[in-house]
Structure prediction request, 279 residues.
Amino acid sequence: MPLNRRRFLAVSAALPWALSARASTSIPVGLELYSVREELKRDAEATVRAVAQMGYQVVEFYGPYFDWSEQQTKQTRKLLDDLGIRCLSTHNDESNLTPQKIQRTRDMNLILGCKYVVQASTGDKTSLDQWKPVADRLNAAAEELEPAGLRVGYHNHQPEFTPLGGQRPIEILAKNTKPSVLLQLDVGTCLEAGSDPVAWIRQNPGRIRSIHCKDWSPDPAKGYTVLFGEGVADWKKIFEAAEEVGGVEYYLVEQEGSRYSELETAWKCLEAFRRKHPA
Prediction:
């Protein structure tokens, strides 16, 4: 991940507000880097530096990280350490938790200093019977990774909260996975599927250890392009439930896209987050 100094300086110049956004909180707030995916493709190091400069305390790398070399992974860890931020979790394809790939997944996440290896959904299923094997695979992965100090997690999208045969698949996963398996809640997709994120958190004490703070609007013209705080999510109640019973350890802003550039979107979401969840 070589540093393009010119690119970093250009990004920094576009962030005159950056240092003013920095604040400490007992529960850190991070950015799911899918939110700045195009910037990340252009210059990963400059983008991570810009995200840290804004005041984000955590980052979450997604799918493409798995293709890094060991040297790239070590360079990324050094960058994070130099910036004083952490990668507490990664998002992974289902295949990354299979016996064929799990050793590499373990090694890369240990280098990055992660705590959680999160499966980023599993796609559509047509029956409830197809979800129990997903839980079994998560448990098997947990057995492999926990001796190394890594926990397994699962990240929902709409299908997990969309009832099949009168039951939501997410309930199958929660009931049939070990309590140590993180249920990483994506608020926006939970809302779009017609579920109540506050009720879900309170039904699963201690298991919602990280939350994707993604808002959503029922207006088809807006959907996921609303910024944090502009949608229908009741963040006050979500934060209360997460911190009273959910066991939340860190929050992650995630944005599908917006009317602003990726970096400005990330900054505006962080500013809005700070207003709704002051340190």
The chain has one domain: 28-276. The mean pLDDT is 92. The longest strand covers residues 86-92. The radius of gyration is 18 Å.
